[in-house]
Amino acid sequence: MHSDYRGSSHRFWKGFVFAWNGIRSVFRTERNFRVHMFCTGLVILGGIVFHITKGEWMLLSLIIALVLSLEMVNTAIEKIMDYLSTEPDPKIGAIKDIAAGAVFVSAISAAVIGGFIFIPRIVEVFL
Ligand SMILES: Nc1ncnc2c1ncn2[C@@H]1O[C@H](COP(=O)(O)OP(=O)(O)OP(=O)(O)O)[C@@H](O)[C@H]1O
């Protein structure tokens, strides 16, 4: 079915195009992903404004990548489940809940890391 692109000499670069298309698709269809992207923008802005350290940038980039990629995996799992059946089914519900839980766990960690990095600096501004 995909023999056309697999046989092409540009298949390596086409892999990036497919990945980019996936990110665009999630951005367009998933509100939660757009919320995460908005938060990412705020965090990057905060990092610039507060001159955070190189180590803090590394930690932030890791946790941002984790949250965004888990949101994409969650969306992929939801789509697989909806492709299999759109009928109400407790097993499908449980699988989707677990995938959503994974995003939630990473988001909590992101909030903790963001708190440790930014709260002392914000407090300093007001003291
Ligand atoms: N076919 C189903 N059978 C039973 N429960 C379902 C089914 N589809 C969805 N659910 C329940 O509804 C929740 C939301 O599922 P949905 O596919 O609507 O994702 P969503 O609203 O896009 O969620 P998210 O905010 O995680 O992206 C699931 O976590 C699950 O509890």
UniProtKB/TrEMBL annotation:
Binding sites annotated in the UniProt record for a divalent metal cation: E30, E78
Location relative to the cell: Cell membrane
Domain of life: Bacteria
Major site of localization recorded for this protein: membrane
Residues binding substrate: R11, E71
Cofactors required: Mg(2+)
Alphabetical UniProt keywords: ATP-binding, Cell membrane, Kinase, Lipid biosynthesis, Lipid metabolism, Magnesium, Membrane, Metal-binding, Nucleotide-binding, Phospholipid biosynthesis, Phospholipid metabolism, Transferase, Transmembrane, Transmembrane helix
Membrane topology: Multi-pass membrane protein
Protein known as: Diacylglycerol kinase family protein
Species: Radiobacillus deserti
